[in-house]
């Protein structure tokens, strides 16, 4: 048994980008958002991820632009630090150490640092000292309030930080920093019409003494004259039919933006009563709204882990889509064609997500019905999905109705269309089974494609592409080829062998082995006690083995040549995941409130690798992803990562993976090079310089022996500096242009100069 510290668990991307409100740069070119322990920088024009601000060791809980420098941003994290960044170049400038408990969440606004403790949710003002040192400890702290809401949307700063407004339940509080005085205003739980008056969000007008508050019943109240506690007034506006999630004033204060579960952005004209505009059908529920400092762009964060960039004319100009992980009912799958991660996306869809680029590719609408964002409605959801080995076919199961009496489900088969490069619905089967489908899988053979489904109606069915009854010619639709059962027991799982010559179907405590060619039941395996949960065949040299886990916390391995139990061990396996590209199998075991990982070969009961305490939650979703370039590790503990990489999803919807130290170094260097390349616009001038550099390198290679290392010319260094130097420190464009044009002129001697000699 091998355990090593060279392999560690890392967050691999796909983190939430909707946890905190995004911010827009002052020139409206960039959108910054938190994503796990990173701050990601996106382009508002291309929607592309540019680079990340990496340095925090825990969840980043807030970001805000530096009021003194619009090219810098503050970030704060659960790790107890506040960091200042140059977000254009991705450079860490300063680290502020805040002496708070490790579980404290911190968020920023208007240059002030406010911390909230989860136990009592205290509001504390922290002074960030000015110092020439990069790492500074912030010691000056003062308590503002001991009773605030755990929702950051219920806290807002007004008039450039003169006061802070915060609400909790039915009470609104306004704290003035100069006076060090708090005024409180209360509402009744319900009014005569039964409205719910609890506060849900707050926004302060940038210039007027006006506070906008959102409430559970969908109303918006505008509070005025709150400087005098007994003379305050408020007016009410109402459009939302459910709770108001977020409010935001435009920088000029001429409009108020609101959003909620309706997925509609509402723009209220300030001081004009109920005059408003709407931008509907934005996707998931609106959680946050942000506005650029010039008022030209708005950003909305949505419950489906999406950021929408909107112009001031109320036109959507960009969408930044993250990995949707709210309710994952399908397994984690890999599209054989695009190598994208596939799982549940927005309601009724499957999402295709590139793990390499950490980018959402597209959604595939499975249900093909309009989803209504309202709690309590019984709507169709995608619960099962599977790809064939070539990626030419996709099978999905959608259902609604939690009770068997109300159950309604469809089995759909989708064909890949080469023209559109997407999947197109081919066959819909409305009565595939009489009860819920609990497992399905495609055959592993590339010659013939077969789908097997197992359901709670005590049957499993094999589906093949059918033939026309009149012409007897193969058609591009699917029909049932075989129906199997075993003593009226409910099946629990099914799996094909690597060569598709065998099909294993588990019925409660019994495993049946079938021949797909003749549909003859070859044998049964029933030694271990407990109902079979997971079932999988070995791969490559271990293809003669069959693995299974039971509800009695047993992991068993059968030899199919002798039809005997090869070995078994007592372990509570929550997820058994075979690697289709090697003999290795990963088993996640949950015990003592944490999950352990065991990697082994079925032929050897001794694990190749173990990792204790991978995470604190159960793991029910995992997948091996093939590598583009295999690793060349010779270490026994890391060889199982050479051909593929293991990803898994925790109950908290964190997507994690295992990484080696050498792999992280390689990825870091490649990401730095990617940032440099993406920062340079592909212009004719850039292409000319690139061509010149390639020609120069070719000449250097020819003029030097193979054993000698080519020396880098001064010109190539100059070209690199020209392309990578910030524009504000370069000479004027008129100077560069005149020199560039003069270089093309023919001298008196009749010899044309090198067009780029002026750079050397």
UniProtKB/TrEMBL annotation:
Sequence ranges assigned to domain WD repeat-containing protein 75 second beta-propeller in this UniProt record: 332-653
Subcellular location: Nucleus, Nucleolus
One function term, GO molecular function aspect: RNA binding
CC per GO annotation: small-subunit processome
PROSITE patterns: WD_REPEATS_2, WD_REPEATS_REGION
GO terms under biological process: positive regulation of rRNA processing; positive regulation of transcription by RNA polymerase I; rRNA processing
SUPFAM superfamilies found in the cross-reference section: Quinoprotein alcohol dehydrogenase-like, WD40 repeat-like
UniProt keyword terms in alphabetical order: Nucleus, Repeat, Ribosome biogenesis, rRNA processing, Transcription, WD repeat
Pfam families assigned to the protein according to its UniProt record, in alphabetical order: Beta-prop_WDR75_1st (PF23869), Beta-prop_WDR75_2nd (PF23769)
Matching InterPro entries: Beta-prop_WDR75_2nd, Quinoprotein_ADH-like_sf, WD40/YVTN_repeat-like_dom_sf, WD40_repeat_dom_sf, WD40_rpt, WDR75
Annotated WD repeat ranges: 53-95, 192-223, 237-278, 430-463
Name of the molecule in the record: WD repeat domain 75
